Amino acid sequence: MPLPNRVAPDGRLFADPARGLLLGNRGGRFHDPATRTLPTRTHATRQWICCLLSFKGRSRAVWSTGYTELFFCDEVTALAAGHRPCMECRRADALAYRAALMRGLGLTGAPSFPSIDRLLDGQRREGRRKRVHASLAEALPDGAMIADGARFLAVKDGRLLSWTPAGYEPCARALRGPVSVLTPPASLAALGAGYAPIWHPSAASAGAAASISWRASKALDVHAETVRERAASRDPSGTIVTMSCWASPKGHAKHDAAMNALPSNRRYLRAWNIYGETGVFPASNS
Q: pTM for this structure?
């Protein structure tokens, strides 16, 4: 049975059989080695780090008498929860994160990592609760994570991906409007200034699927807006009915609203595939 040592983007600990890409800790031990159940404490110190799964051949019994080992789906998840790269096992990444943070915040001197930990600690939590920050979605850099009701969404390549413990899935929500951001502002600054976090491999395929979905959705938007003028230019004696092949309920609603506004003898059939391409087909009166 898996231990409750997986970390969600909001910093919460939970149990899940999916394996993560990164290990981490929160400055020491805050679990009970005897019970190994979900701890009531959330951390040991302000030093919240994310580490490599394997380093110098070291091995240890998880949730024993040492520090409380935590596991992350990827670094995007770890940053959202309020962690930073480890200076020991990920030295190059930790230095790159600090350099990007300096650029993003306009700092002239390199802050110590304990001072970065203090900064992050004030931005990631309010007591035991996760602290969120208001922003416009359009202003967020790649690698930012937002809370959307009960789900978590990550920003990648100008689109949103839906987070799961096992990776990412396509998301239909558009990247716009006010959102609640989980990633602390300091890490947002580092991401915006060029720090490249480690993504779960599923983000690539989910991003490609989201791109196709977005293109089809935009094509359907255009279709719903222009159906009147296109129908008006056709032979009024011909009877054509419109149908959308896109599987989105929202898309069907747009389509139906546009069609219901037309007289029955001015409708036409237009089928859309996932790439937004069209074909016109004759149809019987209805």
A: 0.74
